Amino acid sequence: MLLSPADERMLAGEEGPAVRSALELLVRYGELMGAERLIDTDNVCGANLFGPRHARVLGTTDPAALFSRFSLDLDETVDVPPFRAHSCQLIGPRDRDQWDLQGIAPSDAAAMDDSERYLADKGVDLLSTCTPYQVGNVPRFGEHCAWMESSAVVYINSVLGARTNTEGRESSAASMLTGRTPYCGYHLDAHRRATHLVEVRHPVVTTEDWNVLGYWVGERVQDAVPVLTGPGLAGSAPTPVQLKQFGAAAASSGDVEMYHLPGVTPEARTVEQALAGREPAEVSVFDADARRETVASLCRTATDREVDFVMIGCPHASLEQVREVAGLLEGRRLADSTALWVFTPRALREVAERHGHVAAIEKAGGRVLSDTCPAIGQFLPPGTRVFATDSAKQAHYLPAITGVQGWFGGVRTCVTAALEGRWPDA
Known about the structure:
Elements: H1 5-11, H2 17-33, E1 38-40, E2 44-46, H3 52-58, H4 63-71, E3 87-89, H5 106-121, E4 124-125, E5 146-147, H6 150-160, H7 169-178, E6 180-182, E7 196-200, H8 207-221, E8 226-229, H9 240-253, H10 271-275, E9 282-286, H11 288-298, E10 309-312, H12 319-329, E11 339-343, H13 346-355, H14 357-363, E12 367-369, H15 374-377, E13 386-389, H16 392-402, E14 405-408, H17 411-420
Parallel strand pairs: 2-3, 2-5, 3-4, 7-8, 7-9, 10-11, 10-13, 11-12, 13-14
Antiparallel strand pairs: 1-6
């Protein structure tokens, strides 16, 4: 790999052992990825807030030791200087204010407070969300980033036209320390061109529709780059929320890190431009049968209709989504047997509080949480056997992680299930 003079100095240890180890890690990673060189980045999002599971493995709650071991892959604890790149903390294992609802012990909560302070001292912005672009970190078109979190990666690559691969904890931490990332994958023009064509024949209008389409597309193309066209997309352009949900679903059933919607996403105005003059490797058709089969697949783990838990907000809900839930609950009360939790970025939760949306949800018996989600934190209301969600991503992951049954549907259907304690009959 061709290294710059600054890279060589970091590799020689002139900026300390942590930076040297970070550069070594990036070089190994880049060589495996076929990168010829590293490039500058000043926008890194990683997950370096450690919880009790990490502490038990290492036998300590010391944030410096946990960062050295799990973020830098070191056996020794090293002194870590302030991060060179603009860095953000992604979603973590707990709600900072409502950790008791998750069953977290006070000592574990205190240890996670220490971990947050450690990161803040290094210069990390504690956004604590899977959707940093909703709360201030909006990368520029063409900006080279180093982000974790599959739903955020596909969003900024596709909707914003920024450039990132799906990084891991170690590679993103190394980029925070060095301001460098391997020049490969979706940083390169050649890898951002569409490879597969999806013809959408069934109408895609609602957010539920976009979830279903995304899940179907991910299963079809896996880690390829699709371009979507067809009469089913006619009408109004998808909203940012719908694009958020579509990309998250496609990155869950497959490994989609970028897609093109000509006239909506910024890098291709036409199908031909997205394909860069090439024939697609495969053409797939999304029709009524495909939609029906995908919904059935998303509900494949569910057999019982008595719903214990309804989860809204994966990826973290926008203010509009929180407002919608509050409106559906107005003047009503959840079933005694059913919990409803809405997840949103902490910054948006504060806005939702000022608007009265949080109070409306809580008055109905629900809760609004931040900083985490059931899949990342691996927690559920006690006794949960059956849950429902408006997120294809959460319907994909939570049954596999926790062993619960899962129903998928639109937000209105999910809220109705929380009010009645039962998923509607087909």
